[in-house]
Amino acid sequence: MAGRGARQRGFTLVELLVVLLVMALLTGLAALALPRSGQDSMQREADRLAALLDAARQQAAARGEPLAWAPGAAGYTFLQPSPTGWVPLNDAPLVARAWQWLDAGGTPPPGYLPRVNADAVRAGNVVVQASGGASGTGASTSWLVFGTEPVSPPMQVTLQGDGRVVTIASNGLAPFAVSSQR
């Protein structure tokens, strides 16, 4: 029989808490390492696109010339007018970008210029539709055109795929906001 002075073996509360903390950290790292679903990448793309559309509207007003956002099957680009028509804008952050949900990744080729004359564009399993913006600019119907005024007509971009609809919209004065529905 053990005496009172004998110590029983076991884990202290501090040791158990440390083990739980290490397990939680490893679980978090494993979750970050998992590939993201198409819906997560569609939401991230919408958040990024909202910020870029705000920047394009501000830059069009600052430059005193219209700018356009053109979606395509591989990605999208921002355009500026030239004597020969619309040409890609190569000023950061308004450069050509690939859709995040496409497996190809990367960026579209230099000079990427989507020439889709339709109301909607299919990019992988996502349908991209834009509406609103300045009119009478010779732009494609699927493009958003930002005029030279700081206040623009209402604009909206809708991303629809995998049973989810993500909308990026502005009333023309407020910043672009993202909302989603299932």
From TrEMBL:
GO cellular component: plasma membrane; type II protein secretion system complex
Lineage: Bacteria, Pseudomonadati, Pseudomonadota, Betaproteobacteria, Burkholderiales
Topological relation to the membrane, as annotated: Single-pass membrane protein
PROSITE patterns: PROKAR_NTER_METHYL
GO biological process, one term: protein secretion by the type II secretion system
Limits of the General secretion pathway GspH domain: 45-172
Signal peptide: none
Chain segments annotated as transmembrane: 12-34
Entry keywords, A to Z: Cell inner membrane, Cell membrane, Membrane, Methylation, Transmembrane, Transmembrane helix
First-listed, main subcellular location of the protein, grouped into a coarse class: membrane
Protein's UniProt name: Type II secretion system protein H
Matching InterPro entries: N_methyl_site (IPR012902), Pilin-like (IPR045584), T2SS_GspH (IPR022346)
Organism: Thiomonas delicata (Thiomonas cuprina)
